[in-house]
């Protein structure tokens, strides 16, 4: 059995294949490229041999694209039969990535905290296999873009190399501020939650895992899609 898994986020679309107990990442494409060239993306998927298709998408256009071209695909949502319960006031607005990450966390424990570091930084609580909600604030890249867009002199920065506090240049000061805001926000959120194992994932998860004690699981969303697909 070959299961194709798609994690479609606001920044990038990740595709992996699960076969014979092994999860193999296949490729990553910028989301904007998929939106600009949807036919190319569909062709790329059709070139892969698979039996099942599971998708966690927070981009409506990509969700519709998959539904139109792959009618049998499983689209992750709170409406599905899930391995977790959803205790959330607006389940219809709960992101598929958050649902999938919460389901993926069951591989590690029944109660845990997920820190997803992407376009947004999200901290979610799962207790006794029940999703309890969390906190959402701007992600690392989003903060960097906003400071550049909303000011006349602050440059757009990247995060190659080690971030130093205090910064000794404008670029270093921005890096330090964004990292301090992110790490501080995560730690303050965790301080207000019950003590459970911490799982860190997302595009900025490796950076965050250097400063927050937890288990870095880059494939957590894929693991969750797979649990739902089974």
TrEMBL record:
The lineage of its organism: Bacteria, Pseudomonadati, Aquificota, Aquificia, Desulfurobacteriales. A monovalent cation. Ammonium or potassium. Keywords: ATP-binding, Coenzyme A biosynthesis, Cytoplasm, Kinase, Nucleotide-binding, Potassium, Transferase. PANTHER family: TYPE III PANTOTHENATE KINASE. The keyword NADP does not apply. GO terms for cellular component: cytoplasm. Pathway: Cofactor biosynthesis; coenzyme A biosynthesis; CoA from (R)-pantothenate: step 1/5. It catalyses: (R)-pantothenate + ATP = (R)-4'-phosphopantothenate + ADP + H(+). The gene is coaX. Homodimer. One of its GO terms (biological process) is coenzyme A biosynthetic process. CDD domains: ASKHA_NBD_PanK-III. It is found in: Cytoplasm. Belongs to the type III pantothenate kinase family. This is Type III pantothenate kinase. ATP binds at residues 7-14, 119. The keyword S-adenosyl-L-methionine does not apply. The active site is at 97 (proton acceptor). It comes from the Bacteria. Pfam families: Pan_kinase (PF03309).
């Amino acid at each position: 059995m070959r299961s194709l898994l798609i994690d479609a986020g606001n920044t990038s679309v990740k595709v992996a294949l699960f076969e014979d107990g092994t999860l193999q990442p296949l490729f990553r494409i910028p989301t904007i490229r998929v939106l600009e060239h949807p036919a190319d993306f569909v062709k790329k998927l059709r070139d892969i041999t698979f039996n099942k298709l599971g998708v966690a998408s927070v981009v409506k256009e990509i969700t519709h694209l998959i539904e139109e071209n792959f009618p049998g695909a499983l689209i992750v949502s709170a409406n599905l039969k899930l391995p977790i319960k959803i205790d959330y006031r607006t389940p219809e607005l709960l992101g598929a990535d958050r649902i999938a990450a919460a389901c993926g966390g069951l591989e590690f424990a029944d109660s845990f905290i997920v820190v997803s570091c992407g376009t947004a930084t999200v901290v979610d609580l799962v207790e006794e296999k029940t999703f309890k909600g969390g906190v959402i604030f701007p992600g690392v890249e989003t903060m960097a873009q906003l400071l550049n867009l909303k000011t006349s002199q602050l440059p757009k920065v990247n995060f190659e190399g080690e971030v130093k506090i205090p910064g000794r240049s404008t670029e270093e000061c921005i890096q330090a501020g964004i990292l301090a805001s992110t790490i501080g926000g995560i730690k303050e959120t965790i301080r207000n939650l019950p003590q459970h194992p911490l799982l860190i994932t997302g595009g900025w998860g490796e950076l965050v895992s250097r400063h927050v004690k937890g288990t870095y699981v880059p494939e957590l969303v894929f693991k969750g899609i797979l649990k739902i697909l089974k």
